[in-house]
């Protein structure tokens, strides 16, 4: 295939040479004459191990660096045009799309009318940018997305200093696509890779990139906040504490999905107690730990959010019977202390939904002992499926995976377990 790549910075040059390594013909567009001259001379404008050798291999072969004077020729030959230009954030934190839209307009000015091409944003852009900014920009020019041309995003997950290795040995390829025709073109580009390729919606593609980066940012800031908390408490060897934290077997070789996955909020005994206690002691010592404060606030508000989600899904008929699937705070346990299901049941009752029946494989007796709810309890999965008008999964017990196969009734999956592979 033939691909044009706008921008030859870290991401653009890596993408260009990576596609060349796949066997595609690539034109790399660079408007900075000094950078372009350096690349044409076979040298990198920055330090990136492995990328220099790739440049030597493909320069003059599969990879041709150009300026905009040769843009018409490059675009006319291309099956896809990739955008790897800067999207800096302004004073309000919003992404500045000036360079991106300019590159798109330059493409449109020379685009062959008879050829279906896919315009692919690899620049990091916030979720909904493609659907709410880029597609309307194209529609305003009289273009029909999915007919005249395709639009997609293909977020990068590259670390500076490891760009080449991260591209050639990616852990996943994410393609946010607007239509099936575009998806087919992008799948062809990645046809030779062994890594899993995921075609998702435009918004999902953009969101995954931010999900990844904001998690890393949060972990770093959390660690920094804990070091400040340790300082105000006093008598704590911060470095040693973190080194010992890193020995926790929950992280050593474990899947991050154990904790980095949405649900109804955390419960049980330890997490609520310890999070609140640490926040209290740091605040008493004179430091208001904002991350901890907001972790607690988010968790406290989750039952209300979940209840609203349930009501949106099942409707306003308060005479219906809501079947609660799961009463313990997590599967594999009968612990119901601070369990999210109790808070959700309370919120639903407060909103007038009083016809509720609950089922859990092991925790019914414990739940009844801890909570004084005027609801019905049933002793089998089959019974709650029969009794309920609508069903709500609040604990991810494996036996609930087939709920949509066993009933046509509305199911609200508050644990997102039915979407998992």
Shape: globular
Percent helix: 40-55%
Instruction: Indicate how many domains the architecture comprises.
Output: 2
User: Which strand-content bin applies to the residues?
Assistant: 5-15%
Question: Can you characterise this structure?
Answer:
By secondary structure, the chain is α/β, with parallel strands linked by helices. It has 2 domains: 2-201, 3-Layer(aba) Sandwich (Rossmann fold), CATH 3.40.50.720; 297-419, Rossmann fold (3-Layer(aba) Sandwich), CATH 3.40.50. The chain is built from 16 helices and 13 strands. The protein has helices at residues 10-22, 33-40, 51-58, 71-77, 98-110, 129-139, 163-168, 180-189, 202-233, 238-245, 270-284, 290-314, 340-350, 364-370, 381-387, 403-406, and strands at residues 2-6, 25-29, 63-66, 80-83, 118-121, 150-153, 173-177, 197-201, 322-325, 356-359, 376-377, 390-393, 411-413. Strands 3-2-1-4-5-6-7-8 form an 8-stranded mixed beta sheet, with helices on both faces. α5 (98-110) links the parallel β4 (80-83) and β5 (118-121). α11 packs across α12. The longest helix has 32 residues, at 202-233. It starts with a strand and ends in an 8-residue tail after the last strand. The mean pLDDT is 92.
In short:
With 421 residues, the protein is α/β, with parallel strands linked by helices.
Q: Helices, strands, pairings?
A:
Layout: E1 2-6, H1 10-22, E2 25-29, H2 33-40, H3 51-58, E3 63-66, H4 71-77, E4 80-83, H5 98-110, E5 118-121, H6 129-139, E6 150-153, H7 163-168, E7 173-177, H8 180-189, E8 197-201, H9 202-233, H10 238-245, H11 270-284, H12 290-314, E9 322-325, H13 340-350, E10 356-359, H14 364-370, E11 376-377, H15 381-387, E12 390-393, H16 403-406, E13 411-413
Parallel strand pairs: 1-2, 1-4, 2-3, 4-5, 5-6, 7-8, 9-10, 9-12, 10-11, 12-13
Antiparallel strand pairs: 6-7
